[in-house]
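PROTEIN DESIGN WORKSHEET
SECTION A - STRUCTURE
LENGTH: 308
TOKENS:
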């Protein structure tokens, strides 16, 4: 009887300790994620500059949302431009996926020498500071930068990369591709190493060439990794900010003719004007866009799996 009582006490003690350890991350999420999120919903419905007591702020309902979501809104044109710029900059995603896959495929081949060194070289930009990388690209693509110097060697004239909306976006897209290739390549490399060599050997015996091996074996085996990479890259795409902000500090990251004003740059510009209600409304619009884009991708994947 005493043994049963002792065991019960030990179990209760273990349960209490377990609940205490679980309570720390749960309470952290509640106090630092959910409560601030609910508070930001309230802020999005008031006019507040952060200086006056929040109790004195004017409740405006959905007026902040209407200012950029309706056709006649104060910020509607700027919001649409920011959405267009963001979607344009996300063109880096397909290039990133394709180039990374090809690099991973080459590195995965047994004949590749210095495999570990090459992995490190490709991965370094991903773990480097985004600010430092942007400053490097700013110097590269400046009027008197390295790129124009190379053009001059081959007899081409100067290209004003950072004074044209279209060319500025190309610079940012190039930067995003270069910065993200390492991570995407390592994800593909891990997936490629999980594919048994016996499958490729059997395919070779059946007469399958390299193209058929890639399309019939490699790509289907990496389908889930590709889906994960597309989803995470789209989410990151909606949060592009540092590149524009550092390249064009004098214009709050908007660039020439607002050509690099991504949706996050637009948000931070409003926030810098101390219009916290409007900024909160825009942040929730960005959240809704990310959730909608993610939902569409999951629905597409489910539809594809249904017909497989």
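SECTION B - SEQUENCE
RESIDUE ASSIGNMENT:
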């Amino acid at each position: 009887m005493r043994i049963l009582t002792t065991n019960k006490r030990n179990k209760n003690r273990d349960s209490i300790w377990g609940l205490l350890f679980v309570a720390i991350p749960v309470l952290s999420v509640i106090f630092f994620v959910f409560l601030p999120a609910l508070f930001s919903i309230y802020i999005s419905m008031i006019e507040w500059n952060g200086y006056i007591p929040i109790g004195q702020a004017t409740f405006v309902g959905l007026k902040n949302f209407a200012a950029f979501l309706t056709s006649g809104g104060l910020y509607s044109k700027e919001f649409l431009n920011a959405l267009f710029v963001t979607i344009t900059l996300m063109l880096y995603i397909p290039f990133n996926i394709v180039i990374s896959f090809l690099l991973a495929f080459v590195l995965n081949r047994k004949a590749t020498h210095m495999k570990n060194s090459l992995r490190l070289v490709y991965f370094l930009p991903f773990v480097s500071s985004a600010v430092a990388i942007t400053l490097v690209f700013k110097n590269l693509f400046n009027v008197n930068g390295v790129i124009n110097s190379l053009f001059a060697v081959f007899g081409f004239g100067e290209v004003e990369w950072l004074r044209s909306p279209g060319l500025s976006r190309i610079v940012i897209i190039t930067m995003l591709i270069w910065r993200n290739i390492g991570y995407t390549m390592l994800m593909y490399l891990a997936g490629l190493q999980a594919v048994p060599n016996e499958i490729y050997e059997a395919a070779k015996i059946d007469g399958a060439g390299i193209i058929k091996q890639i399309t019939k074996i490699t790509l289907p085996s990496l389908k889930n990794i590709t889906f994960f990479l597309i989803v995470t890259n789209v989410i990151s795409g909606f949060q592009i900010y540092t590149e524009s902000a550092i390249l064009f500090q004098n214009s709050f990251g908007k660039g020439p003719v607002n050509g690099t004003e991504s949706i996050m740059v637009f948000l931070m510009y409003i926030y810098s004007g101390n219009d916290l209600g409007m900024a909160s409304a825009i942040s929730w619009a960005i959240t809704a866009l990310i959730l909608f884009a993610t939902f569409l991708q999951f629905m597409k994947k489910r539809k594809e799996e249904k017909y497989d």
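SECTION C - NOTES
The chain has two domains: 2-65, 78-307.
The CA atoms of residues 104 and 188 lie 6 Å apart.
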